[in-house]
Write a structure and sequence with these properties.
The chain is mostly beta strands. It has two domains: 16-91, Carboxypeptidase-like, regulatory domain (Immunoglobulin-like, Sandwich), CATH 2.60.40; 109-285, Jelly Rolls. Helix content is 5%, strand content 49%. The protein contains one helix and 23 strands. Strands 10, 12, 13, 14, 17, 20 and 21 form a seven-stranded antiparallel β-sheet that branches. Strands 8, 11, 15, 16 and 23 form a five-stranded antiparallel β-sheet that branches. Strand 18 and strand 19 form a beta hairpin.
Length: 290
Amino acid sequence: MRLLILLLFPALAFGQKNCTGSVIDETTGKPVPYASIGLVKQNRGVSAGEDGTFRIEVLFPAADSFRISSVGYEPKLVAVAGWKDGTPVTLKQKGPLEEVVILSHRPQQVYTLNRFGHCSSHWHWVGLEAVYQRAQRIESPEPGLFLNGLELCKDGSESIFRIRIYDVDPVTGGPSRDLADTVIEVRSKESHVSIDLETYRIAIPGKAFFVAIEWLFIPFNEDVQVTRHKGKKVEHTYYKPAMRSVNDRHLKPGHLWQMNFRGTWEEAYQSYANTNFQITAKMARYGEKF
């Protein structure tokens, strides 16, 4: 038995691989900060640093692939087999969204959706689940509006995260294409965060859209929680921000979705069925519709 274990150990060790690399813009050659690097088979991942570099341990290098993505870029699949340490990965920028012309700089009508009074004491974060985005559906009072701002509640510790705005997929009812092709990045230690989006000119074509939080799996956002299991201390790593939420039994199915590291949207777990993140959307109608 000992001989068998000794013979197997080198094979197991050889099966694991520590991969390092960087993500850069195909056109400019500049780093792509905080790109997502996901393992398709393992459904696990990390975020690149501000300088575009990353490090990740791969358990099944012969059978797995990296899915590398970032807002404003076409995602790319790269086989882990044969990966050379330090390899840079280039991402190609997506084409620009259709230009929207606004004749009036003053909104004719302003709406505030999903308003909340104070920040809740309930929160949710990511870490143990193999997801890095959660998207909440918001119903618009009419089509053809613009998203001018957001307010949200989170924990009071400092964190860096991104906001993503998605259209609704007519088939699945979940998130589909990005409605903002630029990075909306937030760094805050406040519990109540206000985000001005007027300069982004985010057009909402239909009567519903999704606001997503993209967590960055970087050391700055790590939060280690210690629990006990069978008398032993167990450490779990979570990633900030912890989003504040309220319980709402009247929410319709499909209001909350999550993206895994394979790049696939799925409805959030049943435990989130009544979860309503405290995200307020401020929308406006201008004189000219798009």
